[in-house]
Amino acid sequence: MIKPAWLNKKISLGDCSRVKNLLKDLGLHTVCEEALCPNMGECFNKRQATFIILGAVCTRACRFCGVAKGRPLAPDVDEPRRIVEAVQKLGLTHAVITSVTRDDLADGGASVFAETILRLRAMGRKVSVETLIPDFNADETSLSTLVFAGPDIIAHNIETVPRLYKDIRPQGAVYLRSLEVLRILKRIAAQIPLKSGIMLGLGEKKEEVFSVFDDLLKVGCSLLSIGQYLAPSNSHIPVEEYVAPEVFQEYKDEALKRGFVFVKSGPYVRSSYAAGEYIQ
């Protein structure tokens, strides 16, 4: 399928080498690189990055994702300190921390998220912290560990409509479980804004997307990102449709009308793209 004109974004790597070298020197991973994000050049040029903790190998096998799958290594106990060092050197005012799914860990890695947040809080200058979390198997103890550390935003992506989960997320992910994660978070930490994200172009129908909006609102989600799915490689699930920019605007208008507080919607929008705008 040939990409339309609105997806011919000029990706300039510009001065990315400064950020790339910093990350390499500190032994850190980013979703920008591991998930082959098309916005990497833009964000790195702005000295922005979304950090992946708990390694770069996921225990699940979603068919849309460019992150490596397999058996991960044990958590790196020094990783939170290095995240803080990177945030300081990049001069970030809003730090986004995500991770691969770690079904091999008893708490899914929640304690490492918490330690990273607490170290950022102790850094000595104000930095807002957003966590983009896996589902932790909807375990309330793990979610409470995260909440106790006090992130400013908690994000958990719904990714697609429930009908497509079997084909697109065949291993481990469950639509209703992801809703339950957000429901638990809203119950135990009503003061923390909840964010989610959905991809378009996988064969979803408009009424199905609107139904996902309603499901997210019912469990307390108020922030939303909507973007175009782009296959990371030929071995990933193919794109079914390239959604026009005016349709993304329609989805944004509908999401706001239904009750979301802030929505970013467009072909190149990703869940952590321009993440600081959500908290502003």
Structure in words:
This protein has 280 residues and is of the alpha/beta class. It contains eleven helices and ten strands. It has a domain at 10-199: TIM Barrel, CATH 3.20.20. 37% of the residues lie in helices and 15% in strands. α1 (16-26) packs antiparallel against α4 (79-90), α5 (110-121) packs parallel to α6 (140-148) and α6 packs across α8. The longest helix is centred in the middle third of the chain and has 14 residues, at 175-188. It is globular and about 45 Å long.
Distance between the termini: 38 Å
Main sheet summary: 8 strands, mixed
H/E element order: HEHHEEEHEHEHEHHEHEHEH
Structural class, judged by helices and strands?
A: alpha/beta
Mean pLDDT: 92
CATH topology of the domain at 10-199: TIM Barrel
Strand order of the largest sheet: 1-2-5-6-7-8-9-10
CATH superfamily caption of the domain at 10-199 = Aldolase class I
- The radius of gyration computed from the alpha-carbon positions, rounded to a whole number of angstroms, is 18 Å
Question: What order do the helices and strands come in, and which of them pair?
Answer:
Elements: H1 16-26, E1 29-30, H2 31-34, H3 40-45, E2 50-53, E3 57-58, E4 68-69, H4 79-90, E5 94-99, H5 110-121, E6 128-132, H6 140-148, E7 153-155, H7 165-168, H8 175-188, E8 194-200, H9 206-218, E9 223-228, H10 245-258, E10 262-265, H11 276-279
Parallel strand pairs: 2-5, 3-4, 5-6, 6-7, 7-8, 8-9, 9-10
Antiparallel strand pairs: 1-2
